[in-house]
Amino acid sequence: MIYTDESTVKIDAVVLPGLFKSIEIKGDAIVDEQDVEGQSKKPKQATGYEDIKVNIELIIDDGPLLTKIQKIEQIQQIFRIPGQEKPTVHEIINEHTAARGVKQVIFKNLTHKAENKKGQLVVTLEFWEYTVMTVTASKSASGSSGSKKAAAAMAKSNLNEDYQNYLGNRGKAPALKKSPAKDTASGAKYVATVKTMPY
Length: 199
What we know:
- By secondary structure, the chain is α+β, with helices and mostly antiparallel strands.
- The protein contains 5 helices and 10 strands.
- The chain has helices spanning 68-79, 95-99, 145-157, 161-169, 191-195; strands at residues 2-4, 9-11, 14-15, 19-26, 29-33, 44-49, 53-60, 89-93, 104-114, 121-129.
- Strands 3-2-1-8-9-10-7-4 form an 8-stranded mixed sheet. Strands 5-6 form a two-stranded antiparallel ribbon.
- The longest helix has 13 residues, at 145-157.
């Protein structure tokens, strides 16, 4: 869990070292603009929302127990430990994030900046809202005539023009009225033999 108050930020069970300076929460809507020929104004279509971004800023200084570099190393261990391949999902608890409906976040970015002639470091932590996506697979109707016709039309459109002309003019095989195969065996002759078989 991530806790924030006026002076501390806690990620899971670890209190981030430094002085809590600010928290910024940003959310954007996704809006597509369409180009329409002959019109200067572009019609807009709302399609959804971006994930909310949470930025926390800390000021880090040397302390009696740890130097500022050791404190940065502590934060780095929370962001990514050696060998970690994927970011960890954290639960965030804060009055500002709760007001915006953000419950889970990914630790997206860690930046620290050292300024010349200043003993302090400015550290920025960026979190992105994490929402679980449920994907539902649907089975298509494999026997539908519409999909078969569409597949045939697609296959035909990929052929060159000469081959399409050949397919249209090659004619058809002659239809057979009666099968030339004949069954001349008499089943009655072999009934006694079949009855003597063990299976």
